Amino acid sequence: MLGKEASKAPLAPPSPDKRWRLIDATMRKHGYKPSTLIETLHTAQQSFGYLDEYALRYVAKSLTVPLSKVYGVATFYNLFRLKPQGEHTCVVCLGTACYIKGAAKILSAVEQTTHVQMGQTTADNKISLLTARCLGACGIAPAAVLDEQVIGNLTPQMIQDKLKQWTE
Ligand code: FES
Asked: Do residues 132 and 151 touch, judged by C-beta distance below 8 A?
């Protein structure tokens, strides 16, 4: 549990956008319990593509969870995004197994190729860079997820080639 149970009355959504109804439905289904936080943030991200300040505030108020807690959860889990996402996503694993096998070199190859740092999206909105703590693919470390496809045994050259394909 993340705190005391909220009142059952739904708040007015931040805008008339119908997607807020999906978020309301998720919270309503679980009686606006604070423990619904992660599932609600999931729904919000699926609906809008990322979690902006309006969404975080709305969810915090609706579930009576402190905004700081909502930010904490949204930033702790790599699956949540606080910014609009680029056309392609590159998630580089920085977990222990990947780190030992050279994840730092993969990371710097990615940053050199895209000219942005982890957590950022290229100016042309083509590529978003994210990091993960473990992708569950330690046996093929170093690994990354390129547009939802896990690729292992990466070399800096391999990942640079892939990223260049995205920008052509
Ligand atoms: S540490 Fe990278 S996949 Fe597990």
From this structure: no
